[in-house]
Give the backbone structure.
Amino acid sequence: MKPHLHLWLIPLLPLVGAAINGLLGRRFPKRAVAWVGNVFVGASCAMAWWVFARFLSLPHEMLPYVRDYATWIRAGDFSVSYGVYLDQLSMVMVLAVTSVGFLIHIYSIGYMAHEGGYYRFFAYLNLFMFFMLTLVLANNYLVMFIGWEGVGLASYLLIGFFFLRDSAASAGKKAFIVNRIGDFGFLIALFLLIKHFGYLDFGRLFPMISKLGVENAAPGLLTAIGLLLMMGAAGKSAQLPLYVWLPDAMEGPTPVSALIHAATMVTAGVYMVARSNVIFNRAPSAMLVVAIVGCLTALFAATIGMAQTDIKKVLAYSTISQLGYMFLACGVAAFSAGIFHLMTHAFFKGLLFLGAGSVIHALGGEQDMRRMGGLRKHIPWTFWTMTAATFAIAGIPPFAGFFSKDEILWSAFSSRYGSWIFWAIGLLTAFLTSFYMFRLWFLTFFGEFRGAEASAGEPGHGHIHESPRVMLIPLAILAVLSVIGGWIGWPESLGGTQRFDHFLSPAFGTHAEEAAVAAAEHSKELLLAGVSVLAALLGLFLAWLLYQRRRDLPDKIAAALGGLYTTVRDKYYVDEGYAAAIVQPLIKGSTYILWRGIDAGAIDATANESAETAQHVSDALRHMQSGNVRSYAGWVAAGAALVIAYMVYLGVRG
Amino acid sequence: MVPISYYLGLSAILFSLGVVGFLIKRNLITLFMSIELMLNAVNLAFVAFAWQWKSLNGQVFVFFVMVVAAAEAAVGLAIIIAVFRTRETLNVDRVNLLKL
């Protein structure tokens, strides 16, 4: 007898909150809206931790915990049900999503206090939580796809939250459309699975697939499915070449950037690839593609991040880069390392965004780092929490990011699928990451304040002020997590037990002998870890030199680099390239062929022509109906005469 | 013994007169009388055939036609009077709106 975990409550609680706030929130006072929004997510979070406590005591043969609640689709042999699938992987995801999500909800109470549409914001945020939890708890790909599309919807609504601003509305549309391209691949992958296996449930699908052999020599069905799934993941998780929507998504309110576009939704692609590890493990070519896409994205986005001046844009490119790390991990079959980085990244990147939000809040809406500086003394809480997050993302021990990033780099080097090239690119990215994060840190918090004091007269923004306590508490909690969150994955080479990997290993079916091989190379692992720490410190030093010690150097370097610098600053002109190569031809084609040619020229013309013909014919016939009795009589007589003539003709012939 | 073709010829002539009268006259009363002429031409044909075939059916039909014609005359005249009261004319060309 399986114990009842009531997992359905976890996603449904935020949905209730979304319904209450969305339908009735307009009439509520702000306090009530905030309470409703937070209580349901908080309850969901508490529920998740309660489930975790029960989960730990479940015997191993009961895992994964699968339960069907209702049948959704049944057609012949094929059926899809609403159900949950709880294993170590989804457990970690549920905990990360509900906990970070709850903290960001609390933070939003303060951050959104001065914005309009308070109830709308919380309704969307709760709706997002519902879909995200549906996604991670789904027991089959189709329910997962509902969550997948649902978080896309919530993301669209929240990016375009300030919908009166044209750029926000277009950014929302852009995110939605770019995601559709990836979703197309995801859907085709699902169709292939249905066609060849007849199931979408994880519980039945994965055992079937694990009986198949590894497609080493000839890429086949599983490779195709893997590549298509990766296409979906690249859209959702902003990987090359579909990453372009994420920087624009920063148009949304900052808590949204923290929750959706850093901590949770964008990691859905990583989760999906990790969830499909059975498929990827049997398709080495697909794995290679995942790894290449991941490491190229990591490097590419990191270089762009170096030259951005908008504090949120730096973080956006940093997010893309870190997601690249996670895909790199998945691509070298180090799924647990990828998920580990996903979790620590949720802590420190969520914190970085919330901290950036706190900075922006303090400066009354200023996002340009060139007009910041010296904020260390004005907003100490924000400074210290941001510092923890910056050290974490830069990978300096013993902060959380060090452990997860180092595990990925080590896997990229040592794994069966790995190679020193992946490791080298990862290391270079780590250096760049450290550089641009400390650049942000120095520009924002050190030196002299460079902002205009002109806004001093405006009410409420008279001086730089620390954020309210309701915003600082989540910052503090996340800062603690950013420091200690990595310790659960303390590597064996440093005398730890790597508990996180051992916890996740049943979900990924990791082989015991690989662990043994890895254990034999502890000295090498330590050496590589040392190199990556050195790279991070080098980044710190370079940032300190350029943005603290010699403030005149960056401009000189930029001038010396000339075209190279502007290319990087303008994001390699990828948006412009897409506009020229895809958007413009589509607009032209739609305008001249589809609209003026087919729609106006063929379809409308046919309809209008036939209408005009009918009009002409009826115009002619109209004159027969004069209303004149004698003309009617004339027609009757003529008709009668015709009939008689015909009868006579018949009679004569007969 | 008058052959039946004479009766039928007379009937056709009367009917044609009725049709022509209906088509060329303008006065509503005259049109009305033309209709009566056509009905009676048909009656003549009925009785002629009834006599020819020694059957009563034709006679019965004639009575039906006469009853219907009487009813029609009553309704028709009432309409004509109503038209005349509102329009003060009996010219059929001026009555072309399907309403009073």
The first strand of chain A starts at residue 65 and ends at 75. The CA atoms of residues 130 and 406 of chain A lie 33 Å apart. Chain A touches chain B at residues 626-630, 633-634, 637 (CB under 8 Å).
